[in-house]
Amino acid sequence: MSSLCDALSEDRYGTILAIEVSAGAKSDAFPCGYNEWRKTIGCRVSTPPVEGRANKAVITQIASVIQIPASRVTILSGSTSSQKKVHIKGTKKEDLLAILVPLFGKE
Known about the structure:
Elements (H helix, E strand, L loop, with lengths): L7 E4 L2 E10 L10 E2 L4 E6 L7 H14 L6 E5 L5 E7 L3 H11 L4
Parallel strand pairs: 2-4
Antiparallel strand pairs: 1-2, 2-6, 3-4, 5-6
C-alpha cells in the first residue's frame, strides 16, 4: 500500500488528503479503495449531493475514522466535484498513514 502515500501531502498545518467521493451510496465507508490512476482514496457517503450535505457527511465520516473533531477537517477544493482535497489540521502524514493503511485490509 506504499502508493497510498501519493494521496497524501503534508503542509505546515497538517495533511492534505486527495479523495474521490461517491455521494448517494448505499452505505458510508472511508477508506473504500484507492484509485492508482487518480491517486485518490475512495469515500462513500449515503447522503445525496444536495446543498452541501454530502460534503458535511464526508467531513463527519473522515473525522470519525481518524477520531478527531470534525472542526479539524476542511474541504480545500472540489466542493462541487467528486474529487476533493481535504485538509486534516494538526495531523502528520505518517500518523494519518498509520491509521489508514490497516483499514484497507477491512474493505
